[in-house]
Amino acid sequence: MTDAFVFDLDAGCACLDFANTHDSTGEHLNTYADLVAFAAQSQLLTPLDAEWLHAAGRADARAADAVLRRAMQLRGALHAIFSALAAGRTAHAADLEQLNGELAVTQGHACVVADESGYRWGWAARELDAPLWGVCRSAAELLTSEQDRRRVRECGGVDCRWLFLDTSKNRTRQWCSMASCGNREKARRHYQRRRTASTMASAANIGKAS
Length: 210
Fold this sequence. Notes:
Layout: H1 14-19, E1 22-23, E2 26-27, H2 32-41, H3 47-59, H4 61-86, H5 93-107, E3 110-115, E4 118-123, H6 130-143, H7 146-149, E5 152-154, E6 163-165, H8 178-209
Antiparallel strand pairs: 1-2, 3-4, 5-6
Helix pairs in contact: 2-3, 2-6, 3-4, 4-5, 5-6
C-alpha cells in the first residue's frame, strides 16, 4: 500500500474537515483508500477497521468506487450547507435531503458499546461505507447544536473556501489559518493600500505640475 495522504484536520469538527478535502490545492479524495485514510486520521475509524476496509476495498473495487462517489456527493452537500450557515443563509432543501439520506443509513449501524471509561457510541458492523458514518453523525451534531453552529465560518481568503469552527474568544476569526491565508490576505491588503497611496500621490503630483 502506498503512503496515505496526510490530511489537514484543523477545522475543529470532522464534518468540516471532510468538506475541506477539496480546496484550491486540488482534490484529496482521489481513491477509496484516501477516504479510508481520512476517516482513520480523523479517528472516525479504529486502525483495525481501517485495515479491514482497505482490504475490502481492494477486493471489491467497483463497490468501493460507488462509496467514493457517494462521499463526494455528501461532501458537496455538506460544504453547501455549512457555507450557507456561515453566511447567515438557510441551507437548500436538496442539500439537507442528501445529508439525511446518508444519515438514515448511518443510524442503522449505530449502537452503544461499553469501554473502560463507561459507554460510548459505536458501530455494529463493518461495511464499505463506514467512513461516511462518523462524518454524517458529526454533521448532524453540529447542525443541531445551537451554540456550535453559530461558530461555523468560511475562510475570508481570496482563493480559500475552507470551513472552520471559530473558537476565538471574541468570535472574530476570519481565516482558516493565520499562518497561511491570514498572512497572505494581510500582505495583499497592505500591498493594495500602498499601491492606492502611490497612485494618489502620482495623480496629485501631475495635478501640481499642470
